[in-house]
Design brief:
By secondary structure, the chain is of the alpha/beta class. It contains eleven helices and twelve strands. It is about 45% helix and about 20% strand. Bound molecules: 5'-O-[(R)-(carboxyoxy)(hydroxy)phosphoryl]adenosine (KG4) and zinc ion.
Length: about 350
């Protein structure tokens, strides 16, 4: 079965991506076409613009992925596509592209849950065995998953409102820093004093692994306005200290909730995925928690932590190995919880529905 070669297609948010991956974990190509520039003026992803751009770019991304892999469609064993959750127009564009290819070539079609793509990435990058604990932290997702098999996920907790990346982006906006805000907030925080401005640690007083980041954003807004009222303006040092206080609060919350997740559901590996996993302070805090619990800490390379087609191709391979095939009636799903036993999540993030 290791001679499998899958094309993976991803278009659930603002990246149009295609990749070719083998059953023995080789990424032959991974093309990601970002739409950041198209949405920059709107302060968030505009679903209609995203869907149109995906429809325009998917063919090109697939062509480029095949060309970079040096393969034709006839060399593939199957086609995997994100069938949800995400912005429905984009997901539909990807699913239609994949169906067209499957119908034209006769290749098997495998619909993949986008979150499963993220959650199975440590198996692609590091070949980790089940079970392991996964913390997804991005602009649109935030949840702890216990991963027991390619289609066996238990949700231990997650955000009840904003995702952390979304909070980083909103803090950047409040402080007139560029988008996406995470890296800019991190750069400011590196020179700030995390102790000068007090901020809450939301939901730490409650048991369990659920998190909340929207109150933290409001607390930063209040502190910013108080400083402006006191001083008649915001100084560069104030901005740095606000960023440092905010980042430290997020890191502490994620670390404590990870500690609880590992204590309640011991696993040999704590893995992270999502753009926020790029943050050095957060990464260090999680690594320390994993170490204290005797677990290995695993953060895939950033290009595989953020949205990409390789994780979809890989999740498709894992599902295919389990005997899973989809027909041309595969439908695009805006919501698709990974853990069918978990209660539905509340709220929806800047990047569309959360699962
Ligand atoms: O995984 P991703 O590329 O997209 C999805 O949300 O699916 O994550 C993007 C998010 C953005 O909100 C961005 O601000 C955040 O990840 N991010 C960071 C850092 N780099 C990116 N947040 C904190 N620190 C960073 N260094
Ligand atoms: Zn994602």
């Amino acid at each position: 079965m290791d001679d499998l070669i899958f094309l993976g297609i991803e278009s659930s948010c603002d990246d149009t991506a295609a990749a070719v991956v083998t059953g023995d974990r080789r990424i032959l190509s991974s093309v990601v076409s970002s739409q950041t520039d198209l949405h920059a003026d709107f302060g968030g992803v505009v679903p209609e613009i995203a869907a149109r751009a995906h429809a325009e770019r998917l063919d090109l991304a697939v062509e480029q992925a095949l060309a970079e892999a040096g393969l034709g469609l006839d060399a593939l064993s199957g086609i995997a596509v994100t069938a949800g959750p995400g912005l429905i127009g984009g997901v539909m564009a990807g699913v239609m592209c994949a169906k067209g290819l499957a119908a034209g070539t006769g290749l098997p079609l495998v619909g993949v849950n986008h979150l499963a793509g993220h959650a199975l990435t440590p198996r692609l990058t590091d070949g980790v065995d089940f079970p392991y604990l996964m913390l997804l932290v991005s602009g649109g997702h935030c949840q702890f998953l216990r991963v027991e098999g390619p289609d066996d996920f238990t949700r231990l907790g997650g955000t009840i409102d904003d995702a952390p990346g979304e909070a980083f982006d909103k803090i950047a906006k409040l402080l007139a820093l560029p988008q996406p805000g995470g890296p800019h907030v991190e750069a400011e925080a590196a020179q700030g004093d995390p102790h000068r401005i007090p901020l809450p640690r939301p939901l730490l007083d409650r048991p369990g692994c659920d998190m909340s980041f929207s109150g933290l954003k409001t607390a930063v807004l209040r502190q910013r306005d108080a400083l402006i009222a006191d001083q008649g303006g915001l100084r560069a040092a104030d901005r740095r200290d606000l960023c440092a206080a905010f980042q430290t609060a997020v890191a502490e919350v994620l670390a404590e909730k990870s500690r609880r997740a590992l204590a309640g559901s011991p696993a040999p590996v704590l893995a992270v995925a999502g753009g926020v996993a790029a943050n050095r302070q957060i990464r260090a805090a999680l690594e320390a928690v994993a170490g204290a619990a005797g677990a290995r800490f695993l953060a895939p390379p950033l290009r595989l932590c953020t949205d990409n087609g390789a994780m979809i191709a890989w999740a498709g391979i894992e599902r295919f190995r389990m005997g899973h095939r989809d027909g041309l009636d595969l439908s695009a799903r805006p919501r698709w919880p990974l853990d069918r036993r978990a209660a539905p999540m509340l709220g929806s993030g800047k990047k569309g529905a959360k699962a």
